[in-house]
Amino acid sequence: MVDRSFADPSLAALYDTLNPWGPGDDFCLGLVRSAGAVLDIGCGTGQLLGRARRDGHRGRLMGLDPAAAMLVVARRREPGVEWVLGDLRTRVWQGEFDLAVMTGHAFQVLLDDEEVRVALRAVRDALAPGGRFVFETRNPAARPWESWTPDRVREIPDGHGGTVRVWHQVESAPASGDRVTFTETFEGPRWERPRVDRTTLRFLDADTLARFLTEAGFVVAEQYGDWGRGPLTPAAPEIITVARPV
How many helices (H) and strands (E) does the chain have? Predict the structure, then answer.
């Protein structure tokens, strides 16, 4: 899950362990390999672009993230990528990229309509003619937050011989709205007491996403319900969108 708590260096160091390489990364890596210039929005610790560079990508690779602690990890991983501190409100590009990606459900931290509009306009401006924007959100019809319960505890190594326990608990879920607020708790030897962080995510359905994209000058070119390119159904876990500027 995307969580702004990872701006903390002690948590940024755990991010890759909590979020190991998976099918979504494979999906996006294939697109990155075929693009000359790539912008990774909310790049985190730089797993995607770092892998692309190590695999031989010779074009322009830029990672954008608002968390300095995450970029410290990214720069250590791959200094040959442009790592930029900021977000789509503070950084502006005009027609410079063939592909923009927004992975790790980062799109869901855009909580109000204006945030969504500003982000989509900025992405469209950043893309060259024929460019693509790829992002995913969790499918609200599948109600994934119902599994974010305290009894589902993950235990991961902390990198110093200890163990960190991580669990989630939903505080509010949509009855008629589209926002879910939950806590993420970290317990381990590096903290005197459990650390609790609170996050709110927005769950937009495919029709609402399509309206925002159309308003921003995009057309949906492809849409899938999982990383195997399965159809988008009510039970599908994801809404994976490939959009193109009109």
Answer: 7, 11
Please give the order of strands across the beta sheet that includes 97-102: 82-85, 60-65, 37-41, 97-102, 127-138, 238-245, 218-224
State the SS3 of 51-109. HHHHCCCCCEEEEEECCHHHHHHHHHHCCCCEEEECCCCCCCCCCCEEEEEECCCHHHH
Q: What is the pLDDT of residues 105-126, one digit of tens each?
A: 999 999 999 999 999 999 999 9
**pTM flag (> 0.70):** yes
The per-residue b/e assignment along 189-214, b for 16 or more CB within 10 angstroms, e otherwise, is: ebeeeebeeebebbbbebeebbebbe
State the Cα–Cα distance between residues 148 and 131, nearest whole angstrom. 36
Summarised one tens digit per residue, pLDDT across range 20-60 is 999 999 999 999 999 999 999 999 999 999 999 999 999 99
Q: Sorting pLDDT into bands at 50, 70 and 90, what band is 176? A: confident
4-139+203-245 in CATH: which number? 3.40.50.150
Q: What residues have CB less than 8 Å from 213, skipping those under 6 apart?
A: 120, 219, 220, 241, 243
Whole-angstrom distance, CA of residue 136 vs CA of residue 241: 6
**Domain segments of the chain as ranges:** 4-139+203-245, 141-202
Which residue has tokens 């099918």? 23
